[in-house]
Each structure stands twice: as C-alpha cells, then as structure tokens.
Amino acid sequence: MTTHHQHLLAAMRGQQVDGVPWAPRMDLWQIALQARGALPTRFAGMHTADIARQLDVACHAVRGDYTLTRPSEDVVLRGLGIDNHPDYPYRVEIEGLSIEADVAPEHVHTVVHTSAGDVTTHLELTAQMKAEGISLPFVRQYPIETVADLERVAEVFEHCRVIPTPAAYAQFHQRIGEAGVAVASGPIAASPMHLVLHDLMAMDRFFYLYADEPEALRSFATRLDPFYDACLDAVVASAAEVVFWGANYDRDLTWPPFLEQEIAPWLRRVAERLHDAGKLLLTHCDGENDGIGHVFADCGVDVVESVCPTPMTSLDHQALRTAFGPDVTIWGGVPSVALLEASMSQQDFSTYVDDLCEQIGDGHRWILGVSDNVPPDADMARLEYLRERFAAS
C-alpha cells in the first residue's frame, strides 16, 4: 500500500499517482485552539504528524513542527529574519559580537552591538494573537529604518555563522515518518534583497528606499550573499528529499520586475544546486500569482506550496495551472474561507468543491491543501468531507 510519504513525493516529482494527495496544514489550527483552551480532547498532546494520523490525511510538514515547544534562544534573532528551530537542518548564531536579549512570553527585544552602532529589534506576539491563529510576531522595531542603518546590520550578518544540524533534521524526518514529507527549511526570504523587504524594514519604508537608494541596498544585499551561500550549503548537505526556500510572494509586493531582478537569480542558483544533489525545491507562493507564476517555473522550482485560488485571489484552478505551467507541482487549492460557515454557505462550498475537482482534471502535479492554513474556526465536517472527496478522486 502506498504511504502518504510516497504519495506526496511522487506528486512532487510529477509521477503518476492514484488519487490526489490531500495534505492540509494543521499546526496553526492546533496552536490557536490550544491557546483558547478549545482543542478537542482527541488531539490533546499531539504534534503535527499525530494530528495528521488522527485525521487520516497526509501530514503537512514544511520547515518544522511549530506545535512543539521551542527553546527561548531560538527566537532571539527572529527580528533579523533568522528563525532557528529544533527541526531545521542548520542553526544560525552570531559570533564575535555582543548580544543582549529579553525574551518574554509576549515579546522579544534584542540588541546586537556592532562597531557601527547597535542593531535593535522588538517583536510582539500576545496570547490574544495566538488565540486568533496569528503565528508571526508583530514588529515593533525593525533593524533598518534608514540608509544609515545598513552598515551596522550588514556587520551583524557578516558575523553570522551557519551551523549544520543533521541530527536535528534527522529527528524531524523520523517523527514525520511515512505520514508526510519532512521538507527541510532554508531561509524564509528567498534572496538577500527579499530579506530586506520581508523582515529587515517596514514595507512602506523599503519601497521609498528602493526607489531613492537602489545601489546602497544592492551593495548591502551583496554583503549578505556569503550568509545565504552558507545556508544553501547546509540544505544541500542535508538528508532531505525536498527543501523549502523562500516565501510570501505577491504580484503587488514582489512585483514582476523586482521578482525577476532581485529574487529569481537566487531561486535559480538554489534550484541548480538542489537538483545536482538529487533534491527538489519547494517555495511558498501564498499571494496573488497572476503575472508572476511563470517565474517560478523558469527558475526550476519543483513545488509551489500554499497556493491560494479564488475567491481569495484572482486565479481559479485552471488559471493557476496556466500561470505556473505544466511542470510545477501545485500544493494548495482550497482557500481557507471555504472551511468557514460564515464565509461560504454549505451550498456554495459543495459547488466550489465540484468546480475544483473538475478544473484540476486528473490531478496531475496537484497536492491539495488549505491555503494558507486550516483556520481556527474551521468546520471540521467540511475538512472530513474533503478528505473523503479527494480520496475518491
């Protein structure tokens, strides 16, 4: 009998499979209900793979299991876009610079002392935010506010050491087992310039600085290349079959020329290295993909994950296939609003699922999942209906 691991991996490789794999992301649902004290007892004490087994679905195991308790030191550098986790194939540590960190249940305040001045970040993630299913902290203070901050932040990254952690990834891989594919984590921002937009600056300030000081930003990004190269070396050396690299693209935020010039070269480099090592490249395309989907195929991306269709974006399932092309596996396709009674009536939900199944045809190069994740208030009966419907396809 084909396991979920084999089923997902075959779909990612473009091989013929029986039925369409169904792998909804459940970790943020679990975290939110746990924070509310409303997690059903049958899921008590379960991590991501256990929940998937309980629901009889494939496990969404991309990057790491965020239902697990993490050491407080893992979040110290999160304000710099550096997210350490016990499941990752490498850790990032700062060597040769003094760091002060105040890690509390609802905030993280970090100061890195450099020769050019202090780099300060301040993040907030309250209990109420967690109960609402919010997993990314609100940024109270970004490390870069003006061009004058570039030197000190560049110095921080030049003191970052990437430490491969093969045993940590091996534990992740073993925990997921045949329930899914343990996708190893690379950086959440696909390139150094993407990191500036994604994590190091407020977006409105980034757009102004990118227009006013493009060469200063490109010079800064170049200084981060060795850090990104070290991350790439670590994921290539890992035992992973599939590697995550980059997330959160959108036609308006990562507009086509920016995507082509500032992000695509890194995706191409990553794809080439991973393919030479016999691995697949997965990237997280959860935004509006109209006008940019083709870039990922051109870069050699194998899997676009968390892909969101109408009514939350402009593209239905046929249009998504056209956008990404025939040689990329699309993982997603069920918008989170479809699981909410307040957003979609039962009749509309049934019609939507009928249309979805018709549009994806034989399901070649599709893995169905919820974009971006199963919401805390999801109707579990609808989730079960989707499992049964896709199993029969």
Please give a structural write-up.
The structure is a single chain. The chain has a seven-stranded parallel beta sheet with strand order 1-8-9-10-11-12-13. The chain has helices at 4-12, 27-36, 48-55, 127-131, 150-158, 166-176, 192-200, 203-212, 214-223, 225-237, 256-276, 293-299, 317-324, 346-360, 380-391; strands spanning 62-63, 90-94, 98-104, 107-114, 117-124, 138-141, 160-164, 183-185, 242-247, 280-284, 303-307, 329-335, 366-371. The protein is built from 15 helices and 13 strands. It is of the alpha/beta class and 393 residues long. It has a single domain (4-91, 147-153, 161-391), classed as TIM Barrel.
Summarize this structure briefly:
It contains 15 helices and 13 strands. By secondary structure, it is of the alpha/beta class. The protein has a single domain, classed as TIM Barrel, CATH 3.20.20.210.
